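yo, Enoyl-CoA hydratase/isomerase family protein is done. seq:
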Amino acid sequence: MVRTTADGDVRVLTFDRPERRNALDREALEDLETAVADATEPVVYLRGAGAAFCAGADLDVVRGLDGDDAADFAALGQRVTTAIERYDGAVVAGVDGAARGGGVELALACDLRVATPEATFAETGVKLGLFGAWGGTARLPRVVGEGEALDLALSGRTIDAETALRMGLVSRVVEDPRSVANELAAVDTRALRTLKDRIRDDADRRTKEERERSAFARLVDRAEW
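structure:
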């Protein structure tokens, strides 16, 4: 369900279940976890096959879960999004078409979310008496702020690409999101992991500045001018 292709310095991971709008079951999540773990390229690019990015968790699977199984399924999704977030390089979500629920959560775990003009986003779980449990309740307010996060999560409303851009949910709206992945692969990729660590460091300011100096010194020491 997750197709993997290598293209130079970009590893492309495709949710390949278009007849179900790329909804993910346990097998697909495990495939994605393995694909991320096996990737060695400086840039990973996530995309969906067909007319959607990802519809999130397969509801046919969710309906068949009891409490313990549901917790295990959520834990698997959290493990996958953490692996994406901690990837040793840059991860770009190319959202073309619908991103719903867990699909939004997977995109939130990426370093950049790049949308086409046709992209739409919604946290629809609340309409089913549920919510996204793949780390979205932590990442969404971090990305868009608490007010926007509550609006999206509590209403379940659908927003278009331009609205997502204005609130900071996506970084850019372009015709070809893959071009952004190629752009990142063209820079000095040795700095990508360091930049991720520094920007996401939640230590106090003095500690962050000390770590920043040390990281900069290491990069300079290893630079090939």
